[in-house]
Design goal:
The chain is built from 14 helices and 13 strands. By secondary structure, the chain is of the alpha/beta class. It is flat. The structure holds guanosine-5'-triphosphate and magnesium ion.
Length: about 450
C-alpha cells in the first residue's frame, strides 16, 4: 500500500447525475486545503470540527465551482483517525471533477481502492474482519446478507476469534504444566483436562464452520441454472421470475443461444439466475457453442431448474443425460400447466422433485420459489454468526485441524513441546482474523477489492 503521509482524495459516492455527491479527503493537509478554497456563506462563520458549514468552493482564480456543505473531522475522531474533510456538492460529473482537480493541484493524491478503510485499519480504528465487513455490507445482495454483514461489522467474527484465542491460551498454560512432568510419568488428570478443553473448543468450531455454505450463498448469491430442451419455456421462466422481459421469447426452438445471467432476490435469498440455450444437437455453430456453455455451467452451480414442456406427449429428461452431478440438486419444472389438465400431473414420473408451473400465467411460481428455498435452509435471521468469507473459513478450519493433531498427539503421548506447537500455530492463525498477523501482500489483496473512495 501507498504512503499514509499523503493527503488523499476520492469521490465517496457513485459519480453521475444525482442530488448530492460526497468527496472525501484524508491526511495531514486536508483541513488546510479546505480552508484555502471554501468560503462560508455566513459572514464571520468559521469551520468547526464535526459541524457542517454551508459555503462555496472556489477555484484558484476565485471562480465559484459549487455551493456545498463542508465538514472537517479533526484527528483522531474520524474514520481514518486522520484529519478528514467531506464536501457535499451537487452530484454532477464536472462539478466533482473540478473539485478533485482543485485539491490535486494543491497536492492531494487520488486515493487507491479501499485506501480510506486501509488507513482506518492501520490506525487501529477497525480490525481486519471489520474492514472486510464494510466491503461485505456494500456488496450485500439481500436484506439477510446485509444483516449478516452488519453483525460482522459489529464485531461478531472478532468476538469469536477472541473467545477462541482466550481458550487456547488457557490450554497453552495447561500444556506448559504438562511439560513440567518427567517424560516417563504420564499425568492422566492433566491429559483428561486437556482433552476435554480441546474438545470444547472443537465443539465451538464445528457449528461455526458448518455455516460457511449458507454464508457463501448469502454473500455471492445462489447460482441457479435454467436448463432444458428448446422451446420448453426457459426464457419465459427467467422473465417471469425477473418481472420483466429480459430474454427474447419466441415459438422458434433455439431462440436463446448464449447464456443470460441476472440477479434477483427469492424470498430472503440473493440469486444469480442463468438462462441457457435449449439442449439439442444443432448444426448452427453459435447455438452449439451456447449448448456447450450450458453444459459446462451445469457442473458449477448450486441448483438446476430443469424445465420440461408438460403439454407434450412425453416429458422426459433424456437431453440431460450425463449432465447432472450427484452433489448439485435438481428441481424438474413442468411448464405450460395452462395447457394440460391437473389429472395429467399424476402421470409425471421423475427421479427428482418436480413442480408444475405456467410461465405464461404465473401458476405454480410460488410453489417453485418455496421448493427452491427449501433446498437451501439459510437462516432468515440468526443470532449466531455466519461465516461468509473464505479467508475466515480457512483460518477456523486450520485451527480445528491443529486441535485435532494436538488431540492425536496427546493420545500418542508425543512430547509436550510438539503438542504445544499445534496450540501456538492455532493462536497465530486466529491473529490473522483481526489482522494482527497478516502479511502485507494479503492486506493489499483484501483492500484492493474495495471501491475507490471507501
Ligand atoms: N401456453 C404456454 N406457453 C408457454 C409457456 N411458457 C412458454 N411458452 C411459450 O413457449 C414458447 C417458447 O418459450 P421460450 O421461453 O422462448 O422457450 P425456451 O425454452 O427459452 O426456448 P429456447 O430459447 O429456444 O431454448 C414461446 O412461444 C412461449 O410463449 C407456458 O407456460 N404456457
Ligand atoms: Mg430461451
Amino acid at each position: 500500500m501507498l504512503s499514509s503521509e499523503d493527503t488523499i482524495i476520492a469521490p465517496a459516492t457513485a459519480v453521475g447525475i444525482g442530488a448530492i455527491a460526497i468527496i472525501r479527503i484524508s491526511g495531514p493537509k486536508a483541513f488546510e486545503h479546505l480552508k484555502s478554497c471554501f468560503k462560508p456563506t455566513r459572514i464571520g462563520a468559521t469551520l468547526k470540527s464535526h459541524v457542517l458549514t454551508y459555503g462555496t468552493i472556489v477555484n484558484a482564480r476565485a471562480i465559484p465551482i459549487d455551493h456545498v456543505m463542508a465538514v472537517y473531522m479533526q484527528a483522531p475522531a474520524s474514520f481514518t483517525r486522520e484529519d478528514v474533510v467531506e464536501i457535499h456538492c451537487h452530484s454532477n460529473t464536472y462539478v466533482v471533477r473540478q473539485i478533485l482537480e482543485l485539491f490535486a493541484a494543491m497536492g492531494c493524491r487520488l486515493a487507491e481502492a479501499g485506501e480510506f478503510t486501509y488507513r482506518a485499519f492501520m490506525h487501529g480504528r477497525i480490525d481486519l474482519a471489520e474492514a472486510e465487513a464494510i466491503a461485505e455490507l456494500i456488496d450485500a445482495g439481500s436484506v439477510t446478507s446485509a444483516r449478516v454483514a452488519m453483525q460482522h461489522l459489529e464485531g461478531s467474527i472478532t468476538a469469536i476469534a477472541t473467545q477462541l484465542h482466550d481458550q487456547l491460551l488457557q490450554i497453552a498454560a495447561q500444556v506448559e504444566a504438562y511439560l513440567d512432568f518427567p517424560e516417563d510419568e504420564v499425568d492422566y488428570i492433566h491429559v483428561n483436562t486437556l482433552t476435554s478443553s480441546v474438545d470444547s473448543v472443537i465443539a465451538l468450531l464445528d457449528p461455526l464452520l458448518s455455516t460457511f455454505y449458507a454464508g457463501k450463498v448469502l454473500r455471492e448469491g445462489l447460482s441457479i441454472l435454467i436448463l432444458g430442451e428448446p422451446n420448453v419455456g426457459k426464457s419465459s421462466l427467467l422473465n417471469y421470475l425477473l418481472g420483466y422481459d429480459r430474454a427474447i421469447v419466441t415459438d422458434i426452438p433455439g431462440t436463446t443461444r448464449d447464456f443470460i445471467e441476472e440477479r434477483i432476490t427469492l424470498g430472503h435469498l440473493p440469486v444469480r439466475l442463468v438462462d441457457t440455450a435449449g439442449l439439442r444437437k444443432s448444426k448452427d455453430i453459435i447455438e452449439q457453442t451456447g449448448v456447450q456453455r450450458a453444459k459446462e455451467k451445469a457442473k458449477d452451480v448450486d441448483l438446476i431448474l430443469y424445465v420440461v414442456d408438460g403439454s407434450q406427449e412425453q416429458s422426459s429428461l433424456k437431453a440431460a443425460e450425463g449432465l447432472f452431478q450427484a452433489e448439485i440438486p435438481v428441481i424438474v419444472v413442468v411448464n405450460k400447466a395452462d395447457k394440460f389438465t391437473e389429472s395429467k400431473t399424476g402421470n409425471f414420473e421423475f427421479a427428482q422433485p418436480f413442480v408444475c408451473i405456467s410461465a405464461l400465467t404465473g401458476f405454480g411460481i410460488d410453489a417453485l420459489k418455496q421448493a427452491i428455498e427449501q433446498e437451501f435452509s439459510v437462516p432468515k435471521a440468526s443470532n449466531s454468526s455466519i461465516l461468509t468469507e473464505k479467508r475466515h473459513f480457512d483460518i477456523f478450519a486450520q485451527v480445528k485441524s491443529e486441535l485435532i493433531s494436538f488431540s492425536q498427539g496427546l493420545s500418542a503421548q508425543l512430547p509436550g513441546e510438539l503438542l504445544a506447537c499445534h496450540i501456538y500455530t492455532a493462536m497465530s492463525a486466529l491473529g490473522r482474523i483481526t489482522g494482527e498477523t497478516v502479511p502485507e501482500d494479503v492486506l493489499s489483496q483484501i483492500f484492493s477489492k474495495f471501491c475507490v473512495g471507501k
